[in-house]
Amino acid sequence: MTLKERKNEVGGLSNPSKMPGYGYSLPAAECGVGSRLRKVSGSTCSSCYAMKGRYSFGTVQSALYRRLDSISTPEWVENMSFLINFYSEKSPYFRWHDSGDIQNEDHLSKIVEVCRNTPSVKHWLPSREYAIVKSFLKKNSIPSNLTIRLSAHMIEGSPAPTIRDTVKSAVHRNDPTGHVCPAPSQGNQCGDCRACWSREVGTVSYHIH
After folding, report:
1. Pairs from 59-65 (Cβ < 8 Å, separation ≥ 24)
2. Is this model's pTM higher than 0.90 or not?
3. Contact 44, 204 (CB under 8 A)
4. Where are the domains positioned within the chain?
5. pLDDT in tens, 31-56
6. Of 54, 101, 165, 204, whose CA is between 20 and 30 Å from 128?
7. Contact 6, 84 (CB under 8 A)
């Protein structure tokens, strides 16, 4: 299978402008917890960036749903592993779901398998799907190159729960906690910061945007 064919099979990778490498985005409308939080004032999803701007364009939405549909195909893990390894020479960092979230335990299991197949790449997986992650981790382990960062539900609210082998993120207006994301002060770019990909950083706090 050619590189182009593999990209077509998984719907292509995303290339977030602020990130050091590639990512994989899904439609935010299909978030489980996020869809409920969008209706809650003061939640981290109440003004979801992935529901507006370029994410709302028809062509972008079509691509996002192609990716979502591709996850159920038997070749998804193989194709994603190949593509991430292929592009790792550009940057050995990968971000899951700059839009969207884990769909179920089977989806998380496939992501973990991809991470195992790409040992030279550091993976960052943010999620608000606490129940899915907790249930999965009761029965499974994750590789050391995968950082699952559980996102708080409310702006400057209660932190995400403590779950084995995971770390946390928060969203702030005026009262950050933990490591403060430097992107707003450096042109909305990660720059040299790789805190999100590190399990050594217990909490990363992002300014509301």
Report:
1. 61/27, 63/11, 63/12, 64/11, 64/25, 64/26, 64/27, 64/99, 64/100, 65/27
2. yes
3. no
4. 3-207
5. 999 999 999 999 999 888 766 777 77
6. 54
7. no
